[in-house]
Design goal:
The complex is a heterodimer of chains A (242) and B (417). In chain A, 37% of the residues lie in helices and 22% in strands. With 242 residues, chain A is of the alpha/beta class. A five-stranded antiparallel beta sheet of chain A has the order 5-4-1-2-10. Chain A has a five-stranded parallel beta sheet with strand order 6-7-8-3-9, with helices on both faces. With 417 residues, chain B is of the alpha+beta class. In chain B, 53% of the residues lie in helices and 16% in strands. The chains are: A alpha/beta (242), B alpha+beta (417). The A-B interface holds A 45-46, 49-50, 53, 55-56, 75-76, 79-80, 82-84, 88, 90-99, 103, 107-108, 110-112, 161, 173-174, 233, 236-237, 240-241 and B 2, 6, 9-10, 12-13, 315-317, 319-330, 410-417.
């Protein structure tokens, strides 16, 4: 059986002189495996995630998702593959603020017909089931605007969105950094439960080493990736972060 | 479908700026359509004023000038036609009917027209509608007067009122020794007839028997009673409206009149003279249309500026969409959909603005400018204009859309981190 995710001899440099570049010799994530990727900011986390999610394409090497070579596809096909195969959870501000929690959860289904088929007709019902399983009370689920939810509640909605229609891989980028201790533990427990229930692999990136022990495998970026170039990111990244 | 829902939700999230932009677009569209409506209304109004007249004859001048003073009561004649010539015209074989027009006097700002009873039979407007009396009857006596609807309404005259005619259009010399009596008031026509005082040719002659060269002849005062005993055959008329027996003879008659040996005359076809008039005002029309196009363009640019200004704050939104699988093309489509929605809403609201405005201003326009703009269901042309505006708005929406497309390519999902 193919790995959920495989990177082979991947090289990537952001365009422009002195651009940040990243190289990954090999990275494999088995199906259902939970991998913790540790690295401080500036270590190439964002670039690696962009590659894994198919937002950018490597200059050399190959990335395969569920045995399907990913990196050689057109940008459009990569977008489609990301929609079908992956759920993404950001650090914070995961939701469209003007849409309701349920609308946010069913959003990926609009871009992923296979996931939508797995969910069936009652998309809102499935969204509600996931949100309930993640411990959100009825009143929160039925909020008119996602912007009215607390940060912790929003992160749980983001988990439901990542998991709806059971994608193969959940990619989480510092999902707990905005949460305090108790909330973080509760959040991780729920995340693990639901990822396991969906049978998905989990790749979580964080600088917080204390979270690592709950994972099947722990990697540091320094072990798998070599980086070169300026500082903490590209011009685009710096502009974006500003 | 998801695009449309997302675009609507996102617009709803910024409803104040969006509403203002839609409103600005609506006002500009309303202005544009309003100008179009007034333009066509004015043209129609002019074209509707002369129906069924084959030739207008006057002293030789310009055809537009002749049309303006004879039919629209705008401007003045440079010369008259002698009564003898008029009689010759009336007797011409090709002429079916002829109506003399004697202009030059006024009553409190309204023009006085000397004519014959045939005027009430022959005058046609808006297709084939004839003059009808709201009150009273045609003039019969020398000093009878028939008022247009606006004259009666503006000056508050009823039947039996006595009116004094002033010499010239804006003059202090008044024919106050020979007042006229109102015997009839016409129904509203929406033409210059509404603003005209009609009297008989004899009446015009009567008030001028003791005048010469624009002033009363000293020591030769003739009383109103005396004048009735005199020969009141007019010495001249200003112009004449002619209907022909057969359209085939029309051009020959026109040529004959234009080559009339005894005095210089000009005969014009009303339709041709109107075309000439449109040619003259065409520049102003084009300028007006140009200005309203500019206003629409300004509103659409404002919309683009609004969308562009919002992009920076919405990188988040786009990164989220990218993360759940939306391609950059979806982002492009989303922004285009926004521009299309705003332009469509603006165009639709603009239609409401123009019809609402028209409903409010219609009677005022008619009263004040004699401009009757009918409220009719918007025609294909209007929808073509609206369609063009929506298309233009969507097309110009490409600017922020392409920018968002580029941004989403450069940002990817990085913005989250």
């Amino acid at each position: 059986m193919a790995d959920a995710l495989r990177l082979d001899a991947v090289r990537f440099a952001w365009p422009g002189a002195g651009g940040f570049s990243l190289g990954v010799e090999s990275l494999c994530v088995a199906r259902g495996e939970r991998v913790f990727l540790q690295g401080p900011s500036g270590s190439g986390k964002s670039t690696l995630l962009s590659l894994i999610c198919g937002i950018v394409s490597p200059d050399a090497g190959e990335i395969a998702v569920m045995g399907e070579p990913f990196s050689t596809l057109s940008a459009r096909r990569r977008d489609r593959l990301r929609a079908e195969r992956m759920g993404v959870i950001f650090q914070m501000f995961n939701l469209l603020p003007y849409a309701s929690p349920i609308e946010n959860v069913v959003l990926p289904l609009a871009f992923a017909p296979l996931r939508a088929r797995r969910v069936g007709r009652d998309r809102a019902g499935e969204a509600r089931r996931l949100l309930t399983a993640l411990g959100l009370p009825e009143a929160v689920i039925d909020a008119r605007r996602a912007a009215s939810l607390s940060v912790g509640q929003q992160q749980r909605v983001a988990v439901a969105r990542a998991l709806i229609g059971t994608p193969d891989i959940v990619v989480a980028d510092e999902p707990t950094s905005a949460l305090d201790g108790d909330a973080r533990d509760a959040f991780l427990a729920l995340l693990f439960d639901q990822v396991a229930a969906a049978g998905a692999s989990l790749i979580m990136v964080s600088h917080d080493a204390s979270l690592a022990q709950r994972f099947d495998r722990r990697l540091t970026l320094a072990e798998i990736a070599s980086v070169a170039g300026s500082g903490t990111g590209t011009a685009a990244q710096i502009r974006g972060a500003a | 479908m998801i695009l449309l829902r997302l675009a609507l939700a996102s617009l709803g999230n910024r409803w104040i700026t969006v509403a203002l932009t839609v409103f600005a677009t609506a006002l500009s569209v309303g202005l544009f359509l309003g100008v179009e409506k007034l333009r066509s209304g004015a043209k129609e109004s002019f074209a509707n004023t002369v129906s069924g007249v084959d030739l207008i004859v006057g002293a030789r001048s310009g055809s537009v000038q002749l049309l303006l003073y004879s039919v629209f009561r705008i401007g003045n004649a440079t010369n008259n036609i002698t009564w003898e010539t008029y009689q010759n015209l009336a007797a011409a074989e090709a002429v079916d009917w002829i109506v003399p027009l004697s202009l030059g006097d006024s009553h409190r700002g309204f023009r006085v027209l000397g004519t014959t009873e045939a005027y009430f039979d022959r005058y046609r407007f808006r297709g084939d509608r004839g003059l009808a009396f709201a009150e009273g009857r045609r003039f019969d006596d020398v000093f009878d007067a028939v008022l247009g609807a606006d004259v009666a309404a503006a000056l508050g005259y009823d039947l039996g009122a006595e009116i004094v005619v002033a010499h010239g259009i804006a003059s202090f010399a008044r024919h106050d020794d020979k007042p006229f009596t109102v015997v009839g008031i016409l129904e509203k026509t929406g033409t210059p007839v509404d603003r005209t005082v009609h009297v008989s040719l004899a009446g015009i002659e009567a008030i001028h028997v003791d005048w010469q060269g624009g002033a009363r002849m000293p020591g030769r005062s003739v009383s109103a009673a005396e004048v009735r005993t005199m020969d009141l055959t007019p010495r001249a008329v200003t112009a004449a409206l002619i209907g022909v027996e057969s359209k085939l003879a029309l051009l020959r008659l026109q040529r004959a009149i234009n080559n009339y040996p005894d005095e210089p005359l000009l005969a014009v076809l009303p339709g041709v003279a109107l075309q000439e008039l449109w040619g003259l005002v065409g520049v102003a029309e084009a300028a007006l249309a140009g200005v309203s196009v500019m206003v629409v363009a300004t509103a659409l640019l404002g919309m683009v500026a609004m969308i562009l200004a919002g992009l920076q704050e919405r990188r988040r939104e786009m990164a989220i969409l990218r993360a759940v699988g939306a391609g950059p093309r979806t982002i492009l489509g989303l922004l285009l959909a926004e521009a299309a929605i705003i332009s469509t809403a603006g165009a639709a609201l603009g239609l409401v603005v123009v019809y609402g405005g028209l409903a409010l201003a219609q009677s005022w326009l008619d009263r004040t400018y004699g401009l009757y703009v009918p409220i009719t269901a918007p025609g294909g042309e209007v929808f073509m204009i609206l369609g063009a505006i929506v298309l233009a708005g969507t097309a110009i929406g490409l600017v922020p859309a392409i920018r968002a497309y580029r941004m989403s390519l450069a940002d990817g999902m990085m913005i989250g981190n």
